[in-house]
Amino acid sequence: MAGRFNSLKRVETIFIIPIEVLLWGIVMAPFILAVYLSFTNWSPAVSANPFDAKWVGLDNYVNILTSARYLGAVFRTTLFALSGVAIQVAIGLGLALLFYYGVYARRILSIIMIMPMMASPLIVALMFYIMLFTKGPVNAFLSLITGQNIEIRWLSSPELAPVSVIIADSWMWTPLVFLITLSGLSLVPLDHIRAARIVGASEFRVVKDILIPYIKPFILIAVIIRILESFKLFDVPVFMTAGGPGVATETLSIFLYKEGFLTLRTSYIAAGAVIVLLALSLVTYFLTRSIYARS
Amino acid sequence: MSRLWKAIRTAIAVLAAAIAFFPIYWMATTSFKLPGEWSAYPPIWFPTTPRIENYIVLFSEPGTPLRESVLQALGRGFSASPSAVPNIINSIIVAVSATVGAVFIGTLAAYSISRYRTGGLFTYIFILATRMFPPVAIAIPLIVVYSLIRWLDTHWGLSLIYMAVSVAYVVWIMKTFFDEIPRDIVDSAILFGLSHAKAFFRIVLPIVKNGMLATALFTFIINWGEYAFALMFTVGGRATTIPVAISQLQLGGGYQYGPMAALGMIALIPAVVFGYIVQKYLVVGLTLGAVKGRR
Amino acid sequence: MTTVDVDRLVKQYDKFVAVNGISFTVSSGEFFGLLGPSGCGKTTTLYCIAGLETPTSGRILFDGKDVTGLPTQKRNIGMVFQSYAIFYNMTVYDNLAYPLRIRRMPASETRKKVHETAELLGLKDILNVKGAKLTPAQMQLVSLGRAIIYDPSILLLDEPLSNLDPSFRMETLRHIKRIQRLLKITTIFVTHDQLEALSACDRLGVMQAGKMIQLDRPEEIYYRPATVFVAGFVGTPPMNLLEGKIERMADKLYITSPELANRIFHPQAQSVVEEDVIWGFKPEDATLSLEHVKTADGAIIQGRVRAIERTAAENIYLVDVNGKTVKVVTVEYIPLDANVFIHVPLEKIYIYSKKTGMLLDAPRRLEKAV
User: The domain A39-294: what is its CATH number?
Assistant: First the structure.
């Protein structure tokens, strides 16, 4: 029996070692270093050795939390995340219901519908970039159907650039919400739907009272995944509009990148990153705890 | 009457599919157009004579006869563009190695957590939370370390980062698979005299084979399209990957839409393969097949 | 209340014909049953009546009005499902109130009706319990309550007892019958359990492979099963069925059979035209004895007792006869492994055509008091 115990301990510990090493080495250790740096005034422009820097306490944090540009980036990123997710859920749910009730050529249509998910964010950015020229296919199409000369400046106007980013991001991720929601729908017991109809519920009420409540957990998962990932939004706005015009599409990640890499205000950025991380970690912790408890 | 409704639903789904498909289509057609046609207005919706010069530019070295042959059509601006072949190779090397590593490490960890609850809730949350770190936060210190040990701009260095970043998804997905396996299967194997490790490799792994394949493909797609880290760690260097190469085409000499689109199409190949496999074996059948027999 | 007419109903899925042309009428206030094994089409028939499926051909009529094209929502019927289908997220109160809220009944009236129905079914104590937390038996009663609370004209029950613990079934069935008699509601009850069907229904239809085999009162079905299939389906245990031949000997016709120790001179054998028959008898109509019975009347079968199932009231003896098992129900005590003689009185013998399975002759049962 003692031999068995040893082997048990060995396996479970050995299996977890590689991932711990990997994550602590590549993610946590640098992060801890970043936290340290956030309390100093180090910049690679000044010295190559991070430990040369002087301790400045919370100066970086104060600076960044009062920086209009940082706060703007936070606000903007949150806006992108929430509105993007709202669109993705609205359209994804709608399409899922459509497919649930049945469409012709279901197989082919669903394959096409999940294509956007397969491309990587940069490629999506590229696609929308060449589509949204002022003299591009989108404007040409709009001109065609309205009969007027549409010359919307999707990428170069400060008001519309964010919209373009949200559109591209939603285009890419709505299929995910669609799939998750459809999976949820397929699990709704048919008898419940039949029972609702028998007692007189109109189809609208069936959707409202039975289908949607029963798929709430699935929608919740999709929303959580999408919001958390949206906070790292980088590839699309960087490629499509380089964070602009001005700072119109500058997300947190872009702000941190520009300040950190292009102007080398490294420790300042470290503080910004730490703040973001703390906030997201708390959110993740609370949300995942409820899902983990169920498994 | 219900057939009419189905037709209406199908029409809406077709519209959605068209929206899903058009950007891909547009990029595809752009990749087969010549410079004059890229920004033509009204746009050329369907190129009647597809040209492959854009692709040849990508696959040829400057100064070679192959390159010279296409310069006539594309213009001398492309005479110095480097071949994209090294980028493609880099992407393959990095993505494949990172995926193999992440799947291996992640699967072991997922099993350990699933069966033995190793490290408790904290470890599980910790692993998932690593997805939430903004790339910039860990990149800054990591670059410092990498430059010290001269891992900057190497396949191995980048691959390691990718592994760390994508392993969380592997753990998340594989854990759900392992959760589904009844403990009895492993317990009886152990009763037969197999060690815990052997039981895992010989009995459990074959069961989740399909899940691992799906996870591997999914992870590969993520790593293949990763941009932020590649940008920060390999710009202009030898290990530059496809996404970075595409963005460089944008910056250098600007507006090289044709070759950008061509490289984008190449970048889509794994996604297409993945989509095909998924469609054949997994998701479409599960979620969409289960819904038939509805009224 | 309402009468239900099913007129030449056919339901086909691709190549599979689930219901192959059945017709029947349920009169107002009747408790009508559809009985048959899994896959016989009884549930499909019920769904067509409910409007959950559209018939391939044929009509459904409520009080003479054709409702075949009418959507489910408008048919004003109540239905209880095998899986209960209680809405998980809602409390018992909300489940019961749901049909009334759909009909925009004012809250005060709704409250009154919910309490009335809860009182009727003994649900008052659990009105605030969430649907997911109920026991199966409670769920079934809530399901019933929800089905009747809006005073529908027809009640449909799809195997309502099958998912219940056997110990709850009879009690729930009593609840259902009590409610039905109280409300005088036309009820159609689908089940595969012949005991439930025979004990509860005013009339029932036995179905097999999409067709209606026998449509009758329970006593008729029990004592005059129309086909071999029905004979072997009803009864606990069902009828013993053996193969036999009708032979002519000395100008009289006898039934012979490998299991028989004798030949049966059956008066009705004279009028039977076929040669190959299946004959049978009910387990409770036979007697066992250890000695050879001396009467020449009826059937005598010799065999060995291979198993005994004892219940509180009686014993079921499984007798091995030539490799076949014949069941006899009797209160007498016979030891295991004993060699026995089974005697079936002449008047308790059923004869069926081997070729068509149809009943050729049955005991003149109904003249006697049951």
Answer: 1.10.3720.10
Cα distance between residue B68 and residue B80, in whole Å: 11
Cα of B139 to nearest chain A Cα, Å: 8
Q: Give the one of B42, B43, B197 whose C-beta lies nearest to A11's C-beta.
A: B197
pLDDT score at C266: 65
Chain-chain contact of B138 with A126 (C-beta, under 8 angstroms)? no
- CA A75 remoteness from chain centre: 15
The C-alpha atoms of residue B241 and residue B140 are separated, in whole angstroms, by 20
Give tens-digit pLDDT for A128-160. 988 888 778 888 888 888 888 878 888 888 888
Tell whether B226 is covered by a domain: yes
- Best-predicted range by mean pLDDT among A181-185, B122-126, C198-202, C319-323? C198-202
pLDDT of B294 reads 42
Confidence of residue A292 (pLDDT cuts 50, 70, 90): low
Touching B: which chains, 3+ CB pairs < 8 A? A
For chain C, positions 74-93, list CB contacts with chain A under 8 A: 74, 76-79, 81-85, 87-89
Burial of A286 per CB tally in 10 Å (0-12, 13-18, 19+) = exposed
Whole-model pTM: value is 0.84
What is the distance in angstroms between the Cα of A194 and the nearest Cα belonging to chain C? 7
Q: Which residue range is the domain that position B22 belongs to?
A: 2-72
User: Number of A:C CB contacts under 8 A?
Assistant: 61
Task: Using 50 as the pLDDT threshold, list the residues of chain C that sit under it.
Answer: 366-370
My answer on whether B68 and B104 are in the same domain is no
B295 located within any domain: no
DSSP 8-class letter at B49:
S
Evaluate whether residue B46 is within a structural domain: yes
How far does A182 lie from chain C, in Å, by closest CA?
Answer: 20
> What is the average pLDDT value for chain B, to the nearest integer?
83
Domains of chain C: 4-223 (3.40.50.300), 230-361 (2.40.50.140)
Distance between CA A70 and CA A57 in Å, rounded? Answer: 19
Nearest to C327 by CA among C196, C220, C235, C227: C235
Shared domain check, B171 and B111: yes
Q: How far is A195 from chain C (nearest CA, A)?
A: 7
The two structure tokens encoding residue C248: 């002519």
Please give the pLDDT value at position A44: 72
Structure confidence at residue B176 (pLDDT): 86
User: CB–CB of A199 and C98 under 8 A?
Assistant: yes
More confident residue, C161 or B272: C161
Residue B124: closest CA among A231, A289, A14: A289
Using a CB–CB cutoff of 8 Å, tell me whether C99 touches chain A.
yes
Give the whole-angstrom CA distance, residue C232 versus residue B79.
Answer: 90
